[in-house]
Amino acid sequence: MRFSYFLAYSLASLLSASAVSLENDNPVGASITLPRYNLLPRLPWSNHKHHKDNWGNRVEKDRKRITIRSSRNDHDDISADFLWALKKANHGGLVHLQKGKKYLIGKNLDLTFLNDVCVKLNGEVKFTNDIQDVKIYGSGVTNCNGQAWWDGFSGAEIPDPKNKYFRPILVLTDNATNIEVSGLHLKDSPCWTTFFVRSKNVVFDDVYIDAVSTNASTLPKNTDGFYSLNVDGLTVTNTRVNVGDDCFSPKPNTTSIFVKNLWCNGTHGVSMGSIGQYPGVKDYISNAWIENVTQLNGQNGARLKDIRIENTHAPVVLNQCYFNVNEMTCAAYLSKVNITNVIFLNVSGTRSGKNGKVVADHTCSPGATCNGIHLEDINLTSPAGSPSQIVCDNIQGDIGVDCIPASEADD
Ligand SMILES: *[C@@H]1O[C@H](CO)[C@@H](O)[C@H](O)[C@H]1NC(C)=O
Ligand SMILES: *[C@@H]1O[C@H](CO)[C@@H](O)[C@H](O)[C@H]1NC(C)=O
Ligand SMILES: *[C@@H]1O[C@H](CO)[C@@H](O)[C@H](O)[C@H]1NC(C)=O
Ligand SMILES: *[C@@H]1O[C@H](CO)[C@@H](O)[C@H](O)[C@H]1NC(C)=O
Ligand SMILES: *[C@@H]1O[C@H](CO)[C@@H](O)[C@H](O)[C@H]1NC(C)=O
Ligand SMILES: *[C@@H]1O[C@H](CO)[C@@H](O)[C@H](O)[C@H]1NC(C)=O
Ligand SMILES: *[C@@H]1O[C@H](CO)[C@@H](O)[C@H](O)[C@H]1NC(C)=O
Ligand SMILES: *[C@@H]1O[C@H](CO)[C@@H](O)[C@H](O)[C@H]1NC(C)=O
């Protein structure tokens, strides 16, 4: 399992609770505390029962606890101490980064060995801002110093062959199972804030993600809140995202998605896709439930249920053309992505007026199947005037509301 986030669990077998001796190779300022029962003599009638968490691993109080010294200043790199602590805590321990302390990570850490480790993050983990080729990064109340990366990347696009910035991703999992992150603040990621690849059962709860540029001429580009590829089980609840790109955007082969109480500000919205980007490759996104999304000041709004949208250019969008592709090219190369059974329920609010009176745009490619699209309780208004317009092209069947082809819309 490869996991570059500091909070990793896996379905590892437990170590027995027997003695772990204190070692004397501790770095300066580091300490190891054994769980209390480990310090008591093992009497025949003692009957310590381990409590287990929901994956069958030890709970916090039964874990060996490792602490390390914090950074003295913004150049005091404690990467080596941190790596030491993770190795010591591997297989059933806990690394505690303490409240009010700052831990500066300036090196790329290979955390591929992680197996049943908890990181209790009450302090701040900060990454250095040297622009160099760094791949893995991550942590909780984590300040990733994205500004320098956004400034350096300014004007570029990821697929651009001349792009020389391989910007780090704050939280990356690959081939990982059972990831749970809660209560943390993920700040200023250089590129995608999270990216889950070939992973199973990823849960984010009560997380705050922000990436806001302080340089008026650069955008916090591609700092999407949630990104996934080949993932089964992605749950995001009670989370706020304040970034310059997508808020929540599962990519190909993401299944069993559950989102509830998501607040997005200044984002591109909740997007399913891109899917069907590569000819001949079959991609799917299925079984998604998205409920109670608040979308403020964005570009696109979103889908499904109880969505409140304010000041957003295109609140409800379903289309098959994206990324610097003009309408003619799109018409010439028909998409084969089928969209079936997508329901937009109870979507209300205002749009910015950028696209005239159009508040919802559903444009399918003539080459694909688009059916079972249903809109209900949609109350979106546009400052460009009423009645507001809903566009639908190439959709088979009734969508539940009056709609007009794009050619008749006044935008
Ligand atoms: C995924 O991890 C499992 C062990 O957890 C390993 O056996 C397998 O080889 C890994 N797969 C890849 C593609 O890395
Ligand atoms: C803002 O970003 C631009 C583009 O990278 C850069 O030239 C400029 O120096 C930055 N401004 C500040 C104040 O850092
Ligand atoms: C909807 O989400 C917001 C946070 O964005 C939360 O304050 C509110 O309580 C949620 N509403 C319901 C009905 O859960
Ligand atoms: C929401 O985003 C706008 C810019 O799009 C910003 O001015 C505002 O401060 C943000 N609000 C919050 C609560 O972060
Ligand atoms: C999605 O899954 C299908 C079937 O398992 C596979 O053929 C395809 O390559 C996957 N797509 C991506 C982008 O990984
Ligand atoms: C519709 O969504 C709003 C929040 O935007 C919520 O207060 C209301 O209860 C929802 N209505 C239904 C019928 O679910
Ligand atoms: C899309 O639907 C059409 C018609 O039902 C079907 O022939 C085609 O195989 C479907 N494409 C995919 C990628 O599932
Ligand atoms: C639609 O929303 C507006 C405010 O945005 C409100 O005044 C109006 O009553 C709503 N209409 C319905 C049918 O809910």
Describe this structure in words.
By secondary structure, the protein is mainly beta. Mean pLDDT is 71; it is low at 1-22, 129-141, 299-311 and 321-327. It is 7% helix and 36% strand. Strands 5, 7, 8, 10, 11, 13, 14, 16, 18, 20, 21, 23 and 25 form a 13-stranded parallel beta sheet that branches. One 2-acetamido-2-deoxy-beta-D-glucopyranose binds next to loops.
List its traits:
6-stranded mixed beta sheet, mainly beta, elongated, binds 2-acetamido-2-deoxy-beta-D-glucopyranose, 411 residues
What's a concise summary of this model?
This protein is mainly β and 411 residues long.
Question: What is the element string, with H for helices and E for strands?
Answer: EEHEHEEEEEHEEEEEEEEEEEEEEHEEEE
What class, by secondary structure content? mainly beta
Instruction: Compute the average pLDDT.
Output: 71
Roughly what percent helix? under 10%
Regarding quaternary structure, how should these chains be classified? single chain
Biggest β-sheet description:
13 strands, parallel
Question: So what's the overall shape?
Answer: elongated
Strand % is 35-45%
- Work out the radius of gyration: 24 Å
The end-to-end distance, rounded to whole angstroms, is 50 Å
Number of helices: 4
Hetero ligands:
2-acetamido-2-deoxy-beta-D-glucopyranose
Instruction: Count the E strands.
Output: 26
| Parts with pLDDT < 50 across at least 5 consecutive residues | 1-22, 129-141, 299-311, 321-327
